[in-house]
Amino acid sequence: MGIDVGSISTKGVIIDKKYNILSSEYIWTQGDPIGAVKRLVGLLEERFDKERFQIVATGTTGSARRLVGAVLGATMVKNEITAHAVGTTTFYPDVRTILEIGGQDSKIILVENGVAVDYAMNTLCAAGTGAFLSSQAKRLGIEVEEIGDYALRSAHPTQIAARCTVFAESDLVHKIQMGHPREDIIAGVCNAVAANYLNNVGKGKKILSPVVFQGGVSKNQGVVAAFERALGCKVIVDDNGHLMGALGAAILARRGSARKKFDFSVEHMDFRTREAGCGKCSNQCEIICVYRGDELIDAWGNRCERGARSFS
């Protein structure tokens, strides 16, 4: 099983030995990664045939990977770059460039001979992310899922400033007031997302084909078309591209040597976190403690061995 917990969405998959997906789910994190992963496990269980299969390894990735790994008793915890690279190269061994845009961040991974050799992430500006698209869809009175259809109907995309969220939103409001057609404005927003990404995350990177685009924004055909125009090549979007981080985590867990049967009853257990000041040296580390009921199951944040002791 692979779990990818981000700031906006939480994704999970269960795969067999041949990497076929047996169960998958995509839900909103809603500021509660523990609650989200417990809901996710319940949904995965509903679609999983426990009579035929048994989960023997679990991998976690994403911004809350350590926390969720502790909750689930994961056998593998890896960063997003590694998980996305492994997931993508497993299904697209010839890939040279991986574009990924999520709800609040984005990344680019360059691959040579199936190995990630360079990467960059953008976590400061939201102009090239799903959150930006969602806010602009709301402003324009449409569902974010409709953006792609509107954009593809445009013959003359409106020029929208792509430098940052503030400039883009200000320019978009101005173009609305100027009477630009909605589909042209939406196409302009999609172009702005691609331009912002390439000028920031992709700046200085040699983007080579084959290019695979993944993350939630990859489901937006308007943004896909914008990337294809900007790059001058076909952009591959996998049907399960929004799950690629979770797939990579599951594949890494499968390849790892550790084995541990997963217990679905975790969805009914009580977990909580607490911050504790170490105070055992001048570093004054803030230790994150994770409890299952009253039992401390993991703690991290220490910068020296003194802070590695258990906290109660």
Set down the secondary structure blueprint:
Blueprint: E1 2-5, E2 9-15, E3 21-28, H1 33-46, E4 59-61, H2 65-72, E5 76-77, H3 80-91, E6 97-101, E7 106-112, E8 115-122, H4 130-140, H5 147-152, H6 165-177, H7 182-200, E9 211-214, H8 221-231, E10 235-236, H9 244-255, E11 271-277, E12 286-292, E13 295-300
Parallel strand pairs: 1-4, 4-5, 6-9, 9-10
Antiparallel strand pairs: 1-2, 2-3, 6-7, 7-8, 11-12, 12-13
Helix pairs in contact: 3-9, 4-7, 6-7, 7-8
> Could you say which overall geometry the principal axes of the C-alpha atoms support?
globular
By DSSP (H or I, 4+ residues per run), the number of helices equals 9
- Major beta sheet, strand line-up: 3-2-1-4-5
What portion of residues belong to β-strands?
15-25%
Low-confidence blocks of residues? none
Distance between the termini: 31 Å
Tally of extended strands?
13
* Secondary structure category: alpha/beta
Overall description:
With 312 residues, the protein is of the alpha/beta class. Helix content is 34%, strand content 22%. It has nine helices and 13 strands. The chain has helices at 33-46, 65-72, 80-91, 130-140, 147-152, 165-177, 182-200, 221-231, 244-255, and strands at 2-5, 9-15, 21-28, 59-61, 76-77, 97-101, 106-112, 115-122, 211-214, 235-236, 271-277, 286-292, 295-300. The strands form three sheets. Strands 3-2-1-4-5 form a five-stranded mixed beta sheet. A five-stranded mixed beta sheet has the order 8-7-6-9-10. A three-stranded antiparallel beta sheet has the order 11-12-13, covered by helices on one side. A hairpin with a 4-residue loop joins strand 6 (97-101) and strand 7. Helix 3 packs across helix 9 (244-255) and helix 4 (130-140) runs antiparallel to helix 7. The two termini are 31 Å apart.
